[in-house]
Design goal:
With 174 residues, the chain is of the alpha/beta class. The chain has three helices and eight strands, in the order αβαββββββαβ. The chain has helices spanning 2-23, 41-50, 145-162; strands at 29-33, 55-59, 77-82, 92-97, 102-104, 114-120, 132-138, 167-173. The chain has a four-stranded mixed sheet, with no helix packed on it. A four-stranded mixed sheet has the order 5-6-7-8, with no helix packed on it. The protein is globular, with a radius of gyration of 19 Å.
Length: 174
């Protein structure tokens, strides 16, 4: 009896998950720490396309304003990047598949913290979500912990006040 009950539960659960997946088109998100992205574009492109990734968040891009975005473009994706200024290394970026509706929230960025914030909104969202804010954050080992913590808390507080029905996804290396 116990085995058949468990089997029945698994079948019902699988059906429920299947129905939820069809009705709620949430993005698939990949996070990686690149430690220099320029020599990994071909591998990244293959990974994104093979796995049908909606949004790819990358830390430690090691890009600078001397490296043109066209050198790190991935076909079928829009590149949002935020390079570290004044020092080598660091940096964050996101690739957003071209059919995914995202806009960058530059007003949430801060010169003292390596972060990039995106607003995702699909034409069909779950009732309890108006949109999803996606953040990628890189916190280097020598960075000021308090500044990063304060940055994240202040942004989450702002989002809860200004966008009370939004979901938040914070990813990164911190």
């Amino acid at each position: 009896d116990q085995v058949s009950v468990q089997t029945q539960f698994k079948v019902n659960y699988a059906r429920t998950v299947s129905c939820v997946q069809r009705s709620i088109p949430l993005p698939s998100i990949l996070l990686t720490n690149a430690r220099s992205i320029t020599n990994k574009i071909d591998e990244l492109s293959a990974t994104l396309n093979l796995n049908n990734v909606s949004i790819c968040c990358i830390t430690e891009t090691w890009l600078s304003d001397r490296i043109d975005t066209s050198l790190v473009d991935v076909a079928g994706y829009t590149c949002h990047r935020r390079d570290r200024v004044g020092r080598v290394g660091g940096g964050v970026m996101c690739y957003v598949r071209c059919d995914v509706q995202c806009q960058r929230l530059t007003e949430l960025e801060d010169d003292d913290v390596e972060s990039l914030w995106l607003l995702y909104r699909s034409s069909r969202m779950p009732r309890h979500l108006s949109h999803i804010v996606i953040a990628v954050i890189y916190h280097p080992p020598t960075a000021d912990n308090q500044k990063t913590i304060t940055h994240i808390i202040e942004r989450l507080d702002y989002l809860s006040r200004c966008h009370p029905s939004c979901g938040v996804f914070v990813a990164g290396d911190f």
